[in-house]
Amino acid sequence: KALAGEYLGLTGTRLDGAEMLVCGLATHFVPSERLSLLEEALCKVDSSDPAIISAVINEYSKQPYMKEKSAYHRLNVIDRCFSRRTVEEIISALERVALNKKDDWISKTIQSLKRASPTSLKISLRSDFRYVL
């Protein structure tokens, strides 16, 4: 599944490395403590062949841990609420979900949208964000 572009665009949520990987925005996840080793290995490669480069990166990559509070775990809510046509409908849909489900993430998302400039939100939504992959 993918995080809705509308959600990312309207809330300004930043993705971490794990989220970028599962959304298809990244091809590999290399822990920061291994980056210098990867850089050294890439400098030693005498090829521009993408398959060889990818194989080197694979040696230093690992499967990241998806945080419990990640928006990725709330894709059903994101898809259901952020697929609305207007900002008001999005907020209303989130508020309906919040009535039935106690979730700090939903409350914080609603607060974030209500604090933002209504005009900026409407312009961003009209920018016609697409799903991220």
Low-confidence stretches: none
Helix content: 55-70%
User: Radius of gyration in whole Å, from Cα?
Assistant: 19 Å
Alpha plus pi helix count? 8
Question: Which class do the helix and strand fractions yield?
Answer: mainly alpha
Number of strands: 0
Family: Belongs to the enoyl-CoA hydratase/isomerase family.
Function: Hydrolyzes 3-hydroxyisobutyryl-CoA (HIBYL-CoA), a saline catabolite. Has high activity toward isobutyryl-CoA. Could be an isobutyryl-CoA dehydrogenase that functions in valine catabolism.
EC number: 3.1.2.4
Keywords: Hydrolase
Structure in a nutshell:
With 133 residues, this protein is mostly helical.
Description:
This protein has 133 residues and is mostly helical. The chain is 58% helix and 0% strand. It has eight helices and no strands.
Question: Secondary structure elements and their pairing?
Answer:
Elements lengths: L4 H7 L5 H7 L11 H10 L5 H11 L14 H7 L5 H14 L3 H12 L2 H9 L7
Helix pairs in contact: 3-4, 6-7
Key terms for this structure?
single chain, 58% helix, HIBYL-CoA-H, ECH_dom, hydrolase, 8 helices, 3-hydroxyisobutyryl-CoA hydrolase, 133 residues, mainly alpha
